[in-house]
Design a protein that fits this description.
The complex is a heterodimer of chains A (624) and B (398). Chain A is an alpha/beta fold and 624 residues long. Helix content of chain A is 34%, strand content 24%. In chain A, the strands form 4 sheets. Chain A has an 8-stranded mixed sheet with strand order 16-17-18-13-19-20-22-21, with helices on both faces. Chain A starts with 6 loop residues before the first strand and ends with a helix. Classes of the chains: A alpha/beta (624), B mainly alpha (398).
């Protein structure tokens, strides 16, 4: 017997009107959300997955109109009366009665979806009291029970806290509590874990799937991450440019993908068991390998030792806690970090948000000065401390070490044409005549796979991936030796990410570049790096060559990070059991000999050739 | 944390019905390039200025306001041609004459534009002049005609006007004042002063605001602190008494033209804090942008960072804020002149004209003396609407 699905979406079409142009955001989308199952809606940015959810919730932006199709909702509580949501007034009474009660939504950014002015308890009970006429104390009891259920410790205390007092993961739990308090038939989770660290992500994913099993609700999970899909979804719907290209149950989708787009997506995402030398296949290849090969290698001398070396650098930021108190708070962003970058190699720097990895890269760029320790750079004639560089030497250093930014939208001046952007570094450093600059700009553009017609265009006319390639072209304008890449692909879609990663790899080969590659994404670092350093709370806790780190991680934090990355592969599910214990980034909670007491720095010890681990002070001295 | 068993893989499917396998059969072409939001070639090549213009154009009210303002400012050099009477021309027989209506229908038939003449009798009881309109004699007004002589731009004598009163008749479209001077013509002449006060004042305050705001925003630290406190002190002083005090301090023997410049400079001196704050906050925001960091890391000098990366990006915002503060200049001049402390006759501005309507008799008996309020309102509204439109368009990327 086939059960009626909870939601039945048929031929849904939505278009946006803006600047006199009508854009089709959804073009005939049809799928079902069966009862008690998790349906994952997968797609890259602009594929229309969020628009689908917004249409279901009746929260489409003003510029959007539903131009056709239906969204049929078969409420299990009212089995005889299916409702077509497209026919309801989005702000009318009927829609409001459904929204927040029978179907609820959680969002990507838990900070901005909770009001900072109200306590968590007030916001959660508000949802309950709007839909059930109950006195406040009853609502409070229900809320505390839900808090308990979503794993928030001390529900009574949490009830009275404000969102800013909670961590990102806790806030997302509070959001889930708010969504679940009315026992909805459908929970829409729009990228619920994208803004969270991997270890927290694994916990939230487990929570969502537990809660679903318990309450029997359906979940519509919107995500771009096939790893997340493989771990929690029952059914998968793949969208591309407003159309569904493939849908089916999880087994079929992962074991037998048919559509070229889905296959491309699966080949584009880096994963842990890639063979050495295996390349990602992006949806579109960009770089012209022949052009790169034809590039003359820079004539600089290759240093014999490391090209860049940081020794015991530390940085403490001072926060003022109040205007009148005059009290200050010290935050140790980076403590005693030592890094070595060999020429032609890639050093990966991994860690969760706030671990100090960006501060390290800024110190290397001499944008911030370390409190202690030295950073040395070798141009081929011996290591020199960069803090002593002045005038011409500093300008030479700035030429040799270039930076690639995370945000492809913010890092290009919107008022400059591509030509101006690419020649700007040459003009700053007075390199070449105008004609030479023009030729170099055209060549750079070709190198990153863009048409030379693009020279006259402004950054706004490029997509995210194209802009990131422009950023890379600009960084290469002065033939640098070292590129610092700060999360260069974290803002990009998977297929574009593969393109940019491959480009960076090819460029490294062709131009003999050394990279420092900063990322929170272990799979990406695994693909790129030769040596990987794992950072936590301003310390490097483990450093090893790539294979060693992935095959024999020693530090508990590294192990947790590795275990928490969801693989887009049905045979490698997340081990939720292992990740449940929680506080991996808390040094006092690490097992001996890695445990660090408050204020203790620990010591790095070489446990195997090239493999360093941070041990607690006592254990470290014993090992020495 | 939960204690329920996890729903790990491999697991039996939950629910009853799983989604059947569906594969889209439509041809799939990833194409050579990634999709961008807008494929229009014109959009791809557009510069920032073009994008601002496109966005501004969509703001109907702002475009209309801009057209009104352009028309007004374009007419300033030609006021002598436009005004039917001279600035100081007295019509002794028509003191406090009410407005004459411009008509085109006479005796049930269409007629070329004309006015009915009127004459007054002195009412001995109320001591007022009663004007009586003679509807039997339409007096057609003349176009492109020789009229009152004037010295055009101080260069040569001319007498050409766009519109002239009828031969042997009068045309007081907005009535006359206590000396029998035509209000309509005086308002047109007054526009010259009233509209330029705003521009000169804004130039002064723009220069000051850019300088102090730029220092505060770019240097930060104690410079920022000092400038911020200075702004707060300036802002906490009551505005009107300060204007009054400063304009009273202008030497009484200055020529009216010098007084005019004095007043505009006073207005500019007191208006810059708002602009300085706008400059500072924009600079602080822009300095955090990645592209500015990128330029600094490339080794760009400070002047290059400011000139190439900061100024082009905040100029449009500044022009919008400046446009929004012109009305306060115009209103400031009007208020000062109304109180008798701004410009003085023979310089004629809308404020000076309103100064004459400063008593109850005017409001009660000669309400047309309040007519200069209308252009003030129109200009102030137009600047506000246009400024709004500019502000919305200033950042075309969001």
């Amino acid at each position: 017997m086939s059960e009626t699905p909870l939601f039945s979406i048929r031929d849904l079409a939505v278009s946006f009107t803006g600047a006199g142009v009508v854009t089709q955001a959804l073009r005939g989308v049809s799928f079902d959300i069966p009862r008690g199952r998790t349906v994952a809606l997968v797609g890259e940015s602009g594929s229309g997955k969020s628009v689908t959810a917004q249409a279901m919730m009746g929260i489409l932006p003003k510029a959007a109109t539903i131009t056709g199709g239906s969204i049929l909702f078969n409420d299990p509580d009212r089995p005889d009366a299916p409702v077509d949501l497209t026919r309801l007034d989005p702000s009318g009474k009927d829609m409001r009665a459904l929204r927040g009660d029978r179907m609820t939504m959680i969002f990507q950014e838990p900070m901005s979806s909770l009001s900072p002015l109200h306590t968590v308890g007030d916001q959660v009970t508000e949802a309950y009291m709007l839909h059930n006429r109950v006195p406040a104390h009853v609502a409070r009891e229900v809320a505390e029970a839900v808090f308990q259920r979503v794993g928030l410790p001390e529900p009574g205390r949490i009830f009275n806290t404000y969102p800013f007092e909670l961590s990102g993961g806790m806030r997302q739990r509070a959001m889930i509590a708010m969504a679940l308090i009315c026992r909805p038939a459908l929970l829409i989770a729009d990228e619920p874990t994208t803004a969270l660290d991997v270890t927290t992500q694994a916990q939230i994913l487990e929570l969502i799937s537990d809660l679903q099993a318990e309450t029997g609700m359906s979940v519509l999970l919107i995500t771009h991450d096939l790893g997340v899909v493989a771990n929690v979804a029952d059914d998968v719907v793949v969208m591309y440019r407003g159309r569904i290209v493939e849908s089916g149950d999880r087994e079929t989708i992962f074991r037998n993908p048919q559509h070229p787009y889905l296959r491309a997506l699966m080949n584009a995402a880096p994963h842990f068991d890639m063979k050495p030398g295996e390349r990602l296949t992006p949806l579109r290849e960009v770089a012209d390998a022949r052009l790169l090969a034809a590039q003359a290698r820079p004539a600089t001398k290759r240093p014999a030792g490391p090209v860049l070396e940081a020794r015991d650098i530390s940085k403490t930021f001072t926060l003022r806690s109040g205007w009148f108190s005059g009290q200050t708070r010290q935050v140790r962003a980076v403590s005693d970090v030592s890094l070595t970058l060999m020429p032609g190699q890639t050093l990966g720097l991994v860690g969760e948000s706030g671990c100090g990895k960006t501060t390290v890269s800024r110190m290397i760029m001499r944008a911030i000065t370390p409190d202690s320790g030295t950073i040395c750079y070798d141009e081929g004639d011996g290591l020199r401390d960069i803090s002593t560089l002045k005038g011409n030497d500093l300008m030479r250093y700035r030429r040799a070490v270039q930076f690639i930014f995370q945000d492809p939208y913010g890092s290009l001046n919107p008022r400059m044409t591509v030509y101006q952007l690419l020649t700007e570094p040459m003009r700053i450093h007075n390199v070449g005549t105008e004609q030479e600059q023009f030729e170099r700009a055209s060549m750079l553009l070709a190198m990153v796979g863009l048409d030379r017609h693009a020279l006259r265009r402004y950054p706004h006319s490029f997509s995210g991936g194209q802009r990131q390639r422009l950023g890379i072209a600009r960084a290469l304008a002065l033939s640098p030796q070292v590129l610092l890449c700060d999360e260069p692909v974290s803002a990009l879609d998977v297929s574009v990410q593969a393109q940019v990663l491959n480009l960076l790899k090819d460029l490294q080969q062709a131009l003999d570049l050394s990279y420092i590659f900063v990322s929170h994404n272990l799979a990406v670092v695994d693909y790129m790096a030769d040596v990987i350093a794992v950072m936590c709370r301003g310390h490097i806790v483990e450093q090893a060559p790539r294979e060693t780190l992935f095959n024999a991680p020693l530090h508990p934090y590294t192990q947790a990070l590795l275990a928490a990355v969801p693989a887009p592969d049905l045979d490698h599910p997340l081990d939720f059991e292992k990740l449940r214990s929680g506080r991996f980034s808390e040094p006092t909670q690490w097992p001996a000999p890695y445990r660090l007491e408050t204020g203790e720095a620990g010591l790095m010890r070489e446990v195997a050739p090239q493999h360093y681990v941070r041990l607690g002070d006592a254990a470290g001295r014993a090992a020495a | 944390m939960s204690t329920t068993p996890t729903m790990n893989l491999p697991s039996t499917p939950r629910g009853e019905s799983k989604t059947p396998h569906f594969v889209d059969t439509a041809p799939f072409d990833p194409g050579a390039s990634e999709p961008t939001a807008n494929e229009d070639e014109r959009y791809l090549r557009a510069s920032a200025l073009t994008l601002i213009w496109w966005k501004f154009r969509r703001h109907r009210l702002a475009v209309i306001s801009a057209l009104v303002l352009v028309a007004l400012y374009a007419s300033l050099p030609f006021v002598e041609l436009i005004a039917p009477y001279g600035l100081t021309k007295r019509n002794g027989d028509f003191l406090y004459a009410p407005p004459q209506t411009l008509r085109i229908f006479h005796d049930g038939g269409l007629h070329r534009p004309f006015v009915y003449p009127y004459s007054f009798t002195f009412n001995e009881e109320t001591f007022t002049r009663d004007y009586k309109v003679d509807v039997s004699r339409p007096q057609p007004i003349r176009f492109f005609c020789p009229g009152e002589p004037y010295r055009f731009w101080g260069l040569f004598d001319a007498s050409f006007h766009l519109v002239c009163p009828p031969k042997d008749g009068t045309m007081f479209l907005l009535g006359t004042d206590r000396l029998g001077r035509d209000m309509f013509s005086r308002i047109i002449y007054g526009a010259r002063i009233s509209l330029t006060v705003g521009l000169v004042g804004i130039a002064v305050s723009f220069a000051l605001g850019l300088f102090f705001g730029g220092l505060a925003g770019y240097l930060g630290g104690w410079v920022d602190n000092v400038i911020q406190r200075l702004i707060e002190i300036l802002r906490s002083l009551p505005e009107l008494p300060l204007w009054l005090a400063l304009s009273a301090a202008l030497p009484a023997n200055w020529s009216p033209l010098l007084v005019f410049f004095g007043i505009t400079i006073i207005l500019g001196l007191l208006d810059w804090p708002g602009l300085a704050r706008a400059v500072r906050s924009k600079l602080l925001a822009l300095r955090e942008e990645d592209y500015v960091k990128a330029a600094e890391l490339m080794g760009a000098s400070r002047s290059r960072v400011i000139g190439r990366h900061l100024i082009p990006n905040f100029m449009s915002h500044l022009i919008a804020s400046a446009t929004l503060s012109i009305p306060s200049m115009i209103l400031g001049e009007t208020a000062l002149s109304f109180l008798g402390l701004g410009l003085r006759p023979p310089i004629t501005s809308w404020g000076v004209l309103l100064n004459e309507a400063q008593n109850l008799a005017a409001v009660n008996l000669y309400p047309w003396l309040l007519a200069p309020i209308i252009p003030v309102v129109i200009v102030v509204l137009a600047f506000n609407f246009m400024g709004d439109g500019l502000r919305d368009a200033a950042d075309p990327y969001h």
